[in-house]
Automatic annotation (TrEMBL):
Catalytic activity: (S)-acetoin + NAD(+) = diacetyl + NADH + H(+)
Biological role: Catalyzes the irreversible reduction of 2,3-butanediol to (S)-acetoin in the presence of NADH.
Organism: Leuconostoc suionicum
InterPro entries per UniProt: 23BDH, NAD(P)-bd_dom_sf, Sc_DH/Rdtase_CS, SDR_fam
EC number: 1.1.1.304
Protein name: diacetyl reductase [(S)-acetoin forming]
């Protein structure tokens, strides 16, 4: 990796993506924050810059290949380098099997799975252009390691991401590129609160009940903070993980053991 370390994080406007961008900035990376809502990523980028980091905000929908490639191009031109991509953007609809629609599947797969494929392709082009390897880090989920009820659309994408991580790790190793995934459990984020709310509504219960359904069975006895996940991504972005590839690191406080 060059001394001028550059990372791009998708879905960086809130929650886990925001925590990852902030942590990588602290680790010395120049960071590009990508999101569908420019005002959200701009706010996070401004905060990083105020704190002495170097960040830019880029509007892009990861489901659209051209927009992902354009975001990587803008990043490498602005920072004159490209070392790490964190394909973090994702959506998490709650879909009992009998209510899953074509739109549910196409929308969820378009963002969660296709977005990772486009991010991988664009990153590989950039790494090769600069004549070095790099690190591709994909967001899967505890729900992509073990099946969770009512998450057919979401869970299927997260299982797929683990497969893509393994296949691309084998393909790209010869170029000095590692590919790994992180699998968060139940993280206190706006998206998680939305999921818990939907589950509660479906069951005719309150939001607190919904969140409790997810937190029971965590060995550590607490929900995850976004920073817990960012710590693991920091490791996967660093030289300490140079001999790790094709792996999914489960960061769930002890829900799934494999």
């Amino acid at each position: 990796m060059s001394e001028n370390k550059v990372a791009l994080v998708t879905g960086a406007g809130q929650g886990i993506g925001q925590a990852i961008a902030e942590r990588l900035s602290k680790d010395g990376f120049k960071v590009a924050l990508v999101g569908r809502h420019i005002e959200k990523v701009q706010k996070v980028a401004d905060e990083i810059n105020r704190n002495g980091g170097e960040a830019i905000a880029i509007k892009a929908d990861v489901a659209k290949r051209d927009e992902v490639f354009a975001a990587v191009k803008e990043t490498k031109e602005k920072f004159n380098g490209f070392d790490v991509i964190v394909n973090n953007a994702g959506v998490a609809p709650t879909t009992p099997i009998m209510s899953v629609t074509e739109d549910d599947m196409n929308w969820t797969w378009g963002i969660n799975v296709n977005g990772i494929v486009w991010g991988t392709q664009a990153a590989v082009d950039a790494f090769k252009e600069f004549g070095h390897g790099g690190k591709i880090i994909n967001a899967t989920s505890q729900a992509g390691v073990q099946g969770n009820a009512n998450l057919t659309a979401y869970g299927s994408t997260k299982f797929a991401i683990r497969g893509i991580t393994q296949t691309t790790a084998r393909e790209l190793a010869e170029f000095g590129i590692t590919v790994n995934a992180f699998a968060p459990g139940i993280v206190k984020t706006p998206m998680m609160e939305d999921i818990a709310h939907e589950v509660s509504v479906n069951a005719g219960k309150d939001d607190e009940w919904g969140m409790a359904q997810f937190s029971e069975g965590i060995a550590m006895g607490r929900l995850s903070e976004p920073e817990d996940v960012a710590n693991v991504v920091s490791f996967l972005s660093s030289e300490d993980s140079n001999y790790v590839t094709g792996q999914t690191l489960i960061v769930d406080g002890g829900m799934v053991f494999s």
